[in-house]
Amino acid sequence: MEQILIQPLTRKAFQPFGDIIDTKEAENFTINNGMCQRFHDLTPIETAGEDARPLINIFRCQPYDLPLELKMVERHPLGSQAFVPLSQNPFLVIVAEDEDGRAIHLRAFLTEPGQGINFHRNTWHGVLTALNEACDFLVVDRGGEDNNLEECHFSEPFLVLAP
Q1: Mean pLDDT of 124-137
Q2: Which fold has domain 3-161?
Q3: What contacts 92, CB < 8 A, 6 or more positions away?
Q4: What is the maximum span of the chain, computed from C-alpha positions, in angstroms?
Q5: Which distant-in-sequence residues (6+ apart) come within 8 Å of 142 by Cβ?
Q6: pLDDT tens digits, residue range 24-34?
Q7: In the chain, which ranges are continuous DSSP H helix?
Q8: Cα 14 to Cα 69, 107, 120, distances in angstroms
């Protein structure tokens, strides 16, 4: 079984697949009479199609154990997909490059506490993968009538390992 070693999530390493959502380098300013700090425009939201619209959801994810047997990845050809944890629990982010409609060169990242991500449109990625305990996520993605989901199932699973 081919193995994938989990690595820290950095802007440079994740850039081909999407954006990191956090406040570290964000434009920010004070609002509400100085009582609130606004971290502005943290990631672009992509939607394609005539009836497309952004959706805001909450997903409650049960935790996965490591090592993880990865049997498939998915992608969304018509819109980006953002995951922002509503806790400080790190989570696992699995991505892959595309070659002729198949996922190749898989990578696994571990977020820092409070870090979120936004997958670029059409990026192969693993399912939402909480670790250690159940976690709620604010999810922003595309709504509309067209099919926005493709799956890639592997003939042999990958084994995702902690560093």
Answers
A1: 96
A2: Jelly Rolls (2.60.120)
A3: 6, 64, 68, 108, 109, 110, 111, 126, 129, 130, 131, 160
A4: 57
A5: 46, 47, 48, 49, 52, 53, 54, 55, 76, 78, 79, 80, 81, 148
A6: 889 999 999 99
A7: 11-14
A8: 22, 9, 10
Report pTM.
Answer: 0.90
Q: What residue type is assigned to position 57 of the chain?
A: N
Secondary structure class of 13 (helix, strand, coil): helix
Cβ neighbour number for residue 114 with a 10 Å cutoff:
16
Q: Are 2 and 159 in contact (CB under 8 A)?
A: yes
80 in Cβ contact with 46 (< 8 Å): yes
Structure tokens at 134: 């159940």
Which residue is it, tokens 């990026």? 123
- Angle at 7 (CA atoms; ends 6, 11), nearest 5 degrees: 135
